[in-house]
Amino acid sequence: MTTEQTKQADWLQSVRWNSLEDRLDLLDQRLLPxxxxxxxxxxxxxxxxxxxxxxxxxxxxxxxxxxxxxxxGVRSFSGSRDALLTExxxxxxxxxxxxxxxxxxxxxxxxxxxxxxxxxxxxxxxETTVESAQQALLDEARAIQAEDEETxxxxxxxxxxxxxxxxxxxxxxxxxxxxxxxxGTALAPMYLALEKGITLKVFADETRPVLQGARLTAFExxxxxxxxxxxxxxxxxxxxxxxxxxxxxVGTDRVAANGxxxxxxxxxxxxxxxxxxxxxxxVACPMSTxxxxxxxxxxxxxxxxxxxxxxxxxxxxxxPQGVKVFNxxxxxxxxxxxxxxxxxxxxxxxxxxDNLRKLFTE
Length: 362
Ligand SMILES: CSC[C@H]1O[C@H](OP(=O)(O)O)[C@H](O)[C@@H]1O
Description:
This is Methylthioribose-1-phosphate isomerase. The protein has 2 domains: 15-151, Four Helix Bundle (Hemerythrin (Met), subunit A); 162-359, 3-Layer(aba) Sandwich (Rossmann fold). 39% of the residues lie in helices and 16% in strands. The protein has helices at residues 44-52, 59-74, 81-95, 103-120, 130-160, 188-195, 212-224, 236-241, 267-276, 308-311, 352-361; strands at 2-4, 15-18, 23-27, 36-41, 168-171, 201-205, 228-231, 247-250, 254-256, 261-264, 281-284, 290-291, 330-333, 340-343, 346-348. It has a 7-stranded mixed beta sheet, with helices on both faces. The chain has a 4-stranded antiparallel beta sheet with strand order 1-4-3-2. It binds ligand LNRAV4D5.
């Protein structure tokens, strides 16, 4: 475990391949904002645990970590090419059980599977060795991470075209650099605005029960010098009513084919409030978060998490023992509340069914 004092983090990488030590270093996001600690992972089970326990979280970051987890799971494998291909698939199946909602997890694992198939499958060149295939899988995981950084910057460029200097922008949960390779999705325009001398005044919902907004969004924006005001989730309505918010932008864990959006619990409430106040509600995501195989939001599996996150979050009991608890980690915002979906290829508006499909075919 590598502990660094909390410092002026101009940029904090949530997922770091340590080529010197041949291991995966994951920023333990459970300890932010007080401590910057990197977990030093060498097995796929450690990656599975880190995803499950939200040491690493955020749809793209989960996919990137899982891709490295596949490599960790097969790098010491010795056996035939066919046996390695089978082992890659087994590792992907295992890592896919860590969390159910963020489609980037499955997108990244499918990409690792496809790479292995191309290297070791029936149509693969005979000269590919087990060793060269293992190295190629590490290269694929690193490519997924590098591409995500460029994707997030492009999302930021498109999103920024929707904002004006001095605007108030509300966001929910954390869809920032900590949730991706860099820049984030919903927070990407904030960082690009900073680069371009544009002032955006961000209102960050604390986002109960795990407080990704308070612990992560407020932290990373403050560290970067972005104007950020932390509010409780139940204050989103009043800051809109006061006219302090001109736009809402959030990330997402899965966009269904009809444009319904699964995101952190509480997002749906923010979307309804935005509609009531005539405020645009934007969703920022890479195309890897759009799942055309999931017809509607009703088909998106919603993770339910342990009751302790609500009754004794961060170790302090705040509810009676034995009380019934409902703790869905996500909710679904119907597409009619979504003003636009901002991707690396551009801004998509309704009708989402047609326009999301066009995104992949044009
Ligand atoms: C850029 S995806 C961020 C997305 O992931 C978060 O969920 P979690 O912290 O549980 O992984 C939240 O839904 C964010 O919008």
